[in-house]
Design a protein that fits this description.
The structure holds 2 protein chains of 2 kinds.
Chain A (H helix, E strand, L loop, with lengths): L2 H11 L10 H6 L1 H14 L2 H11 L4 H25 L4 H10 L1 H10 L1 H18 L1 H16 L4 H16 L3 H14 L3 H26 L14 H28 L4 H13 L8 H6 L6 H10 L11 H25 L4 H16 L5
Helix pairs in contact in A: 3-4, 3-8, 5-8, 6-7, 6-8, 8-9, 10-11, 11-13, 12-13, 12-14, 17-18
Chain B lengths: L1 H12 L2 H10 L6 H58 L1
The chains are: A mainly alpha, B mainly alpha.
């Protein structure tokens, strides 16, 4: 059972958080409540600290009793708010969290689910009394999670289906769109794994095509220059890749402002991509031979290849810089390694493809 | 004290993964009040993820619906233009 299902189940079963209101003597006779009430008075400061001190000494007068009654109202209110949040917590929830977090699994093996819940509840009460702002943040978060649309997943699927129909997707495009939509509906940790897989496949395909396109100049795999027939086949392969990008782009559009999980998966894949051996890092470190982004852009703007979009503003340049650096470094190292062709010559098609690829990822 | 010193050293590195792993590995050795805080941090962590995912999904649906509405309007405009053309031609 997912954490969300747990919360919904508990919300449906939830009893009213507030029971019969306790009197001040009842609060003071309850070890748990009296400790929290003392904390509450302490945090209120000013006259309440004096009041607490007289309470400890058993030296209260009728005026103090009235003040205590007043302060009790605020205390009870906070305790009730904490109880509402504590009611959402259950042993099932602890087990669910352990199933996605190896660290918490270890913790649960020490505590057991019920004790973990008891600790959480105790902490919720502590925070409600001692850290009001912190508590408000947690309560808002819990409310957001527990009140989000019950049919949310279905709603996402419906919208994606309509989106696909509207885009008239068929065949492989449709297959990919459905795959990405399903990934979007997964819990965060599973999404990370799934997007990594997509990034690996996609970036792997990209590298193979670049290799083929450049006749193996980049050295990602053995290659050679192509005949005209082969070049036509390569062009077709690029079109297929463009289709994939379009689908990925449309799914990414759905996530708006760049889903950080997808962006992270692609960045990680690019950074971790296998680099050629025997690379001479001294060239890179000195910076003497490392081309600047401006040079690449100038080269790209001179290029006669079709432009998919223009890089106009410094903000846009900054936006693409990081992605370019990763790709350019690979290209440069490979060029050094194979000692064939000029870097700019190799980089032009690489950068053009990188622009297409990175555009949807860096919205 | 040795455990505390180790934790301080790891905390200095600022590596969250290492800190989490250390706390989980040594959980049984921690005093109960500290255990309570650590167990709660993992609950917070999970809630953060759930809330973030909820927001992303809500944004995704809103954006997609906006796109679909725009497309729907465009389709209508196109259809109206076609009908006008047909009517004008008839």
């Amino acid at each position: 059972m997912s954490i969300l299902e747990n919360i919904r189940k508990l919300r449906n079963e939830a009893k009213p958080a507030s029971g019969p209101e306790k009197s001040v003597p009842e609060i003071l006779n309850d070890p748990h409540d009296s400790r929290l009430f003392a904390d509450f008075l302490m945090h209120s400061g000013g006259r309440d600290i004096d009041l607490l001190e007289r309470l400890r000494l058993g030296d209260i007068d009728p005026g103090d009793a009235r003040d205590l009654d007043d302060r009790k109202m605020e205390f009870i209110h906070r305790m009730n708010e904490a109880k509402k949040i504590a009611n959402f917590l259950s042993p099932d929830m602890a087990t669910t969290i352990a199933s996605t977090s190896p660290e918490f699994k270890k913790i649960l093996s020490v505590l057991g689910p019920q004790k973990a819940v008891n600790m959480w509840k105790e902490e919720i009460y502590n925070i409600a009394i001692n850290h009001e702002t912190h508590f408000t943040a947690i309560a808002n978060q819990m409310t957001l999670v527990s009140t989000r649309d019950e049919d949310e997943t279905k709603r996402v699927e419906d919208v994606v289906e309509k989106y696909q129909k509207s885009s008239k997707m068929t065949g492989r495009k449709k297959f990919n769109a459905e795959r990405y939509a399903k990934i979007m509906a997964l819990p965060e940790k599973e999404q990370r794994v799934a997007w990594s897989e997509v990034a690996r496949e996609s970036y792997g395909g990209f590298r193979k095509r670049i290799d083929t396109y450049t006749g193996g100049l980049l050295g990602w795999s053995a290659g050679r220059r192509q005949s005209k027939t082969e070049q036509a086949a390569i062009a077709a392969a690029f079109e297929e890749k463009d289709d994939e990008l379009e689908v990925l782009g449309s799914v990414l559009d759905l996530t708006v402002t760049g889903n950080p999980l997808i962006r992270e998966a692609f960045k990680r894949e690019m950074v971790n991509a296998k680099k050629p051996e025997n690379k001479d890092l001294t060239f890179i470190q000195s910076g003497e031979y490392l081309p600047k982004e401006a040079d690449v852009l100038a080269e790209w703007n001179k290029s006669t290849r079709p432009k998919y979009f223009e890089i106009k503003t410094p903000a846009e340049q900054e936006m693409y810089r990081e992605a370019f650096c990763s790709l350019m470094e690979n290209a440069y190292l490979d060029a050094l390694n194979t000692a064939t062709g000029s870097w700019a010559h190799i980089a032009a098609p690489l950068v053009s493809f990188a622009i297409q690829r990175m555009r949807p990822l860096l919205v | 004290m040795e455990l505390y010193d180790q934790l301080v050293e790891i905390t200095k590195t600022g590596e969250e993964v290492a800190i989490r792993a250390f706390l989980a590995d040594h959980f049984a050795e921690l005093p109960e009040p500290v255990q309570q805080k650590v167990a709660f941090l993992f609950l917070r962590d999970h809630l953060d993820g759930e809330a973030a995912l909820s927001e992303v999904r809500a944004q995704a649906v809103a954006a997609a619906e906006a796109v679909l509405n725009t497309r729907g309007e465009a389709d209508n405009t196109e259809r109206i233009a076609e009908l006008k053309k047909e009517l004008g031609a008839s």
